[in-house]
Specification:
The structure is a single chain. It contains nine helices and 20 strands. By secondary structure, it is α+β, with helices and mostly antiparallel strands.
Length: 413
């Protein structure tokens, strides 16, 4: 039983698949398509034009001795599922292309892994071609399963996709610069592991960003996200670590046409401050070296944290709208724009190869809090003024008696 919103990680998926890999029948069918989400089953299981798009798949699930449905699985886990299965056992790999199972020769004396790639479709509720593609995939799965059953082959089936077909829309990061009361940051299942720099046997620098890109001369866009965190096609050998100074050096070879080499340095210091009686880690500057001779330097604002913590900020860059700014320090720096989202950096006191508690760039008194305080002061002032006016009200010293003569009040009184 999984709690709502839980995303199965690579390790959890491997543990869940162990019963399949250790059972007596060593035949496994892996059915893969490009995109698929659990919401597709919810929608396409309804009747459309007097027919069910996934009728056969439902029947297979109902007739199966056991089944397991995982609503959300990490994309990295499904992307490398075939490689994991091949490493777990000495399978005889068979790619089924013509889907004619009657001509398929199966040697049940050894483990068999059958791989089927289904046609992809775009999830569009109002598109007839999408519904037809879903129905056709359902027929393919039905023919394949029934064909194997007719041959008396015992097998298990895994039906998955390399990426989700429906991704929940998230508000743009520019609108999430400030804290949200009683809210936690949503875990991103598509996020990549942090880049780590080791010094001997321990990690001394950790760096992560969901988007890491530059703009050179207002015209050349350089996206460094994938080559830094996914492909790891970056040279970090020039990085330096010590108890007082750390430098993260990222060297790229021909990141784009026209730039042969690019080096980006994050220079950090660890100093003791008597006012707080503790050490603070500070990002002093960011430097860009292009083709070994063009040097740009940026000073940094508000990027510091206690030395035992990491630093996190939703947006870091050269824009005036970002909470943590990189300010050009020389003429060459004016030719560069830097954009970093979900920035997290730690250069000291790293334990267990993981980020420590993050000190965020957002201050406590956000614009919303200031607006609330100013509004409250204005309302309190109006309330105080009203109470003061009520307290100044007085009653007449004499009143008219309806049974006596009329009361005459001289104007001089």
């Amino acid at each position: 039983t999984l709690h709502e919103g839980h995303v199965i990680s690579t390790q959890e998926l491997a543990a869940l698949l162990q019963p399949v890999l250790t059972q007596s029948s060593k035949n496994l069918v892996l059915i893969v398509q490009d995109t698929l989400s659990v919401d597709d089953f919810t929608y396409y299981s309804e009747t459309y034009v007097n027919k069910l798009c996934i009728n056969l798949l439902q029947e297979i699930l109902r007739s199966s001795p056991s089944s397991l449905v995982l609503p959300a699985v990490d994309c990295k886990a499904t992307r490398y599922l075939l490689g994991f299965l091949q490493e777990s056992m000495n399978w005889k790999l068979t790619n089924i292309t013509n889907l004619d199972v009657s001509q398929l020769e199966v040697n049940t004396s050894k483990p068999n892994l059958f791989v089927v790639h289904l046609q992809s479709f775009i999830s569009n509720f109002n598109d007839i071609s999408t519904l037809e593609a879903v129905a056709e995939n359902d027929k393919i799965i039905g023919r394949l399963i029934m064909g194997l059953q007719e041959q008396g082959i015992r097998f298990s089936v895994i039906y998955t996709a390399t990426r989700p077909s429906r991704i929940s829309r998230r508000t743009d990061a520019a609108w999430q610069l400030r804290r949200q009361l009683m809210a936690t940051e949503e875990e991103d299942s598509l996020s990549n592991p942090a880049l780590n720099v080791t010094n001997g046997n321990y990690t001394c620098i950790l760096f992560y960003a969901s988007n890491f890109s530059l703009m050179a001369n207002y015209s050349v866009f350089i996206d460094l996200t994938n080559i830094t965190f996914v492909n790891r096609d970056v040279d970090i050998s020039s990085s330096e670590c010590s108890d007082t100074n750390s430098t993260l050096s990222l060297k790229y070879t021909k990141p784009v046409n026209g730039i042969n080499s690019l080096e980006i340095r994050f220079v950090m210091t660890n100093m003791f401050y008597g006012g707080s009686a503790r050490n603070w880690s500070t990002l002093e500057s960011v430097e860009i070296v292009q083709d070994d001779y063009m040097f740009a330097k940026f000073s940094v604002s508000v990027i510091s944290a206690p030395a035992e913590y990491s630093f996190h900020c939703q947006l870091v860059g050269t824009s005036n709208l970002y909470p943590a700014r990189l300010i050009p320090s020389n003429t060459e720096a004016n030719n560069w724009d830097i954009f970093i989202s979900r920035f997290q950096l730690q250069g000291f006191n790293i334990e267990n190869n993981q980020f420590s508690y993050a000190s965020d760039c957002t201050s406590f008194f956000t614009p919303a809090i200031w607006m609330g305080l100013v509004t409250s002061v204005i309302l309190l002032w109006i309330l105080a003024y009203g109470i003061h006016m009520i307290m100044q009200l007085t009653t007449n010293s004499r009143f008219d008696d309806p049974k006596g003569p009329a009361l005459s009040v001289p104007q001089t009184e």
